[in-house]
Specification:
- The protein has 642 residues and is an alpha+beta fold.
- The chain folds into five domains: 31 residues; 60 residues, no CATH class; 283 residues, Glycosyl hydrolase domain, family 43 (Tachylectin-2, Chain A, 5 Propeller); 95 residues, no CATH class; 89 residues.
- Helix content is 18%, strand content 33%.
- The protein is built from nine helices and 36 strands.
- The strands form eight sheets. Strands 30, 31, 32, 33, 34, 35 and 36 form a seven-stranded mixed sheet that branches. Strands 24-25-26-27-28-29 form a six-stranded mixed sheet.
- The longest helix has 34 residues.
- The radius of gyration is 44 Å and the shape is elongated.
- 25% of the residues are buried.
Length: 642
C-alpha cells in the first residue's frame, strides 16, 4: 500500500475547482483507509509469513530467534551428555528408520515428527480417495454408458397398449394405465406383473402419466380428469378395486395448479425430492410459433399443498419430440434433469430417452431405448414405447430409471419393464418379483388356502393344489354333495388369458373308482362387482380301463337322485336294482345307468340290461331337476336275438 498523498495547495476561490479538490482528497483518504483495513485484517487473520523470529521481541531472550537458539543448544546438550557410556547409543538414536543419520537426536525427532504429519495427511487423503471411489461405484448412475436391464412383464386384463406405469416403493405393487375409449383403466398388479384388480377412470383421458404420493398411510393418485362441464381438472383420489370412478366420486379432491385457464395438465410426483412436475399443453394454434407443443413446470409439493403459485423450473419441450414418429410416451425427473421418453410402434424407428438440464433447459444427451426384443425381433413386429418412472429405494435412496414397452399383436400384448439401476436396486426389485410357480419350490402341490377361501372360484392363482377330504367339506361351490366327498382331490388352475379367464380342473384321487374329472371356466376379472363369475362344472366322461363302471353310491335310494351328476355312467347290480325306488325292472339283472344332461331343468336316464344270454333291453325316462321327480313314463326298447 502506497503513502497517502493529499492535495495541499487548494485554490483560494470557493467554486467548482475547490469542490473537485476536496472530493479528490476525500476519495484518497477513503481508499487509503480501506486498503489499510483490508491489509491489517489479512495480516491479523490469514497471513502466514508476516514476521521472522528475529523480528519478534521477547522479555526474557530479547528476540524469539535468540530464545529458540538457546533452547535448542540446551536440548542438544541434555541428550549428548547423559551418562558416560551413552555416546554410541546416542549416535544410533540419531539414525532414523529410513537410514538417514541426523546431526543430533533432536534433529532426528523433528524429522520423524514432520514425516508423521506428512504420512498422516497422505493416509487421510488416500482414505478419502478410496471412500469417494467406493461411493462413486455404489451410487453409479451413468445412464449413457449403462445397459438397459429387463425387470418384469405386466399382465393386466385389458388387451390394449400400456400408457404409463408406477412401481410403488412401499408395497412393491405396480399401477398401470391403458386407454379405454375416452377413459382409462388403471390396473393394480403384483411385483411379478400378476393382476390383482382394476379401476376405470371415466373422462380421465388416456392416462399418459399420473402422480403417486403417500400421505400418512394413504396412497393418493394424481390425475387429469374432465369435470361435469367438460373442463380440464387436476385431481387426486385413492384406488378402489374393481370400480368405476368419475369426477366428484369417493374421496376425490381438486389439486392446485396455478393455471386458472384450465389447460390440459398431467402430473408426475417425485416424493424423494418433494417435487411435482406439470406437463402442460399449449393451445394448438401456438405449436408451430413456439416450436413446442408442451412445456413443463417443476413446483414444490409443499407449495402445491398450500396453494402457493411458485414455479422452480419451466422449460419448453421441442416440437420434434412430440411429432408423429417420436411422440411423447413418458416423462420423469429428478432434482437436476428432465427425462423425456419418445417413440412409436414401428420397431424400425428407434425409441429414445432425451435428457435435459432443468436449470438451463438445454439438451444433455439422448439414449436409444430399443427394449423388448426376443432375440433380434420384436414380437408381432410391434414395439411401442410406453411409460417411464424414476424409482427410489426407500431405505437407501438409490434410484433406477424405468421405462416400459408394449410388444405383440392385438390380444397378445406383452408389457415389459426395463431399467438402468444403481447398485443393489436391480437385485432387490427382481427378488420381490418372483414369477408365479405352478408348484411349491420343492415341486410338491401348493397347499390349498382353506383358511382364506370357502369357494373354489376364489382360487385363481395358477398352479396345482391338493385338498384333503376334510378340506372339501367346507367348500360351497364343489360339484358333489358333501355325502359324496369321500376322497382327496387335485385342483389345477390354468394361467389366465388376456380377458382374465382361467380353467379349473378337479380330479378325484381314487385307486378303486373312476378318477371323476370336473372342469369349468372362472373369470378372475371382478370389475363392477359382478355376481357369479364361473360356469357350471362339466364332468369329463371317463372310465377305468378293464374295470367295471362305478357303482351307484350307497346314499342314493331313488332313481330321481341320480341327476346329481350328469354325463356319468354308473353300474347297478341285481341286488342294488331292487333297492332303488322307481327302477323299472328291479331284481332281474345288472344294469348300466347313463345319466345324460338335456336342459338346465331336466335330465334323461338310460338303463341298459347287462346279460350275456338274454335279449338286450333298454329303458329311458326324463326327470326334472327342479321338482326332483320323473316327468315321463319309462320307455322300454326291446331287442331281439339275431
Amino acid at each position: 500500500m502506497g503513502r497517502l498523498n493529499l492535495q495541499k495547495s487548494l485554490t483560494i476561490t470557493l467554486g467548482q475547482d475547490f469542490r473537485n479538490q476536496l472530493h479528490t482528497n476525500f476519495l484518497r483518504v477513503e481508499d487509503f483507509s480501506n486498503q489499510f483495513y483490508n491489509q491489517f485484517s489479512y495480516h491479523k487473520n490469514e497471513e502466514l509469513n508476516a514476521h521472522g523470529s528475529e523480528q519478534i521481541t521477547d522479555k526474557r531472550f530479547k528476540t524469539v530467534e535468540r530464545g529458540l537458539n538457546i533452547i535448542n543448544k540446551r536440548y542438544n546438550n541434555l541428550v549428548l551428555s547423559k551418562g558416560k557410556n551413552s555416546l554410541q547409543e546416542v549416535k544410533d538414536a540419531r539414525l532414523d528408520n529410513e537410514g538417514t543419520a541426523h546431526p543430533t537426536l533432536f534433529d532426528r525427532l523433528q524429522s520423524d515428527s514432520t514425516r508423521f504429519e506428512t504420512d498422516k495427511n497422505e493416509i487421510m487423503a488416500s482414505v478419502e480417495d478410496a471412500k469417494e471411489k467406493v461411493l462413486a461405484q455404489e451410487f453409479a448412475f451413468d445412464i449413457p454408458n449403462q445397459d438397459w436391464q429387463y425387470l418384469t412383464n405386466l399382465s393386466p386384463f385389458v388387451s390394449k397398449v400400456m400408457q404409463s406405469f408406477h412401481l410403488d416403493y412401499k408395497t412393491g405393487v405396480f399401477y398401470m394405465t391403458q386407454a379405454y375409449d375416452g377413459d382409462y383403466m388403471i390396473s393394480k398388479l403384483q411385483s411379478n406383473g400378476a393382476p390383482l384388480s382394476k379401476m376405470l377412470i371415466k373422462n380421465g383421458g388416456h392416462g399418459t402419466h399420473n402422480g403417486y404420493r403417500w400421505i400418512d398411510d394413504k396412497l393418493w393418485i394424481y390425475s387429469h380428469i374432465k369435470d361435469d362441464e367438460g373442463f380440464n381438472k387436476l385431481v387426486r383420489f385413492s384406488y378402489r378395486p374393481n370400480t368405476e370412478f368419475s369426477y366428484g366420486d369417493y374421496d376425490m379432491e381438486e389439486v392446485f395448479t396455478g393455471h386458472p385457464e384450465l389447460p390440459y395438465i398431467t402430473p408426475i410426483i417425485n416424493e424423494h425430492e418433494g417435487l411435482m412436475l406439470y406437463r402442460i399443453e399449449y393451445p394448438e394454434s401456438e405449436w408451430e410459433t413456439r416450436n413446442s407443443r408442451n412445456y413443463i413446470e417443476i413446483r414444490k409439493l409443499e407449495d402445491v399443498d398450500n396453494r402457493v403459485d411458485k414455479v422452480l423450473y419451466k422449460m419448453d419441450i421441442p416440437l420434434r419430440l412430440t411429432e408423429k414418429t417420436q411422440p411423447m410416451q413418458g416423462v420423469t425427473f429428478d432434482s437436476e434433469n428432465l427425462y423425456w421418453y419418445t417413440g412409436d410402434s414401428d420397431p424400425n424407428i428407434p425409441n429414445f430417452v432425451t435428457v435435459f438440464d432443468l436449470k438451463t433447459g438445454k439438451e444433455l444427451y439422448q439414449k436409444q431405448a430399443d427394449v423388448g426384443k426376443i432375440g433380434n425381433e420384436f414380437p408381432g413386429n410391434f414395439a411401442e414405447a410406453e411409460g417411464m418412472q424414476m424409482y427410489y429405494d426407500e431405505s437407501t435412496g438409490k434410484k433406477a430409471l424405468l421405462i416400459g414397452v408394449t410388444v405383440g399383436k392385438v390380444s397378445y400384448r406383452a408389457h415389459q419393464i426395463h431399467g438402468i439401476f444403481m447398485r443393489d436396486v436391480y437385485n432387490k426389485l427382481t427378488a420381490q418379483s418372483t414369477p408365479v410357480l405352478m408348484t411349491e419350490t420343492g415341486g410338491r402341490t401348493k397347499t390349498f388356502p382353506l383358511s382364506e377361501y370357502v369357494k373354489l372360484s376364489d382360487v385363481t392363482e395358477p398352479g396345482y393344489y391338493y385338498m384333503t377330504t376334510v378340506d372339501t367339506q367346507n367348500l360351497t361351490d364343489f360339484p358333489l354333495p358333501k355325502v359324496m366327498r369321500d376322497a382327496g382331490w387335485f385342483l389345477e388352475v390354468s394361467a389366465p388369458n388376456v380377458a382374465g379367464d382361467v380353467k379349473q380342473t378337479l380330479t378325484r384321487n381314487s385307486y378303486s373308482r373312476d378318477l371323476m374329472i370336473f372342469q369349468r371356466m372362472v373369470s378372475i376379472d371382478k370389475m363392477n362387482g359382478q355376481g357369479q363369475n364361473y360356469t357350471n362344472w362339466n364332468l369329463v366322461k371317463s372310465s377305468s380301463v378293464n374295470s367295471p363302471a362305478e357303482s351307484v353310491p350307497g346314499h342314493i335310494t331313488d332313481m330321481n337322485q341320480l341327476g346329481i351328476i350328469t354325463n356319468k355312467r354308473w353300474y347297478i347290480d341285481t341286488k342294488r336294482s331292487s333297492e332303488l325306488k322307481d327302477h323299472p325292472a328291479p331284481g332281474i339283472a345288472g344294469w348300466t345307468c347313463d345319466v345324460e344332461s338335456v336342459t338346465s331343468g331336466r335330465f334323461k336316464i338310460v338303463l341298459s340290461r347287462v346279460n350275456s344270454t338274454a335279449v338286450g333291453q333298454t329303458y329311458e325316462a326324463y326327470f326334472s331337476t327342479e321338482k326332483n321327480e320323473r316327468i315321463s313314463p319309462w320307455t322300454l326298447f326291446e331287442g331281439k336275438i339275431v
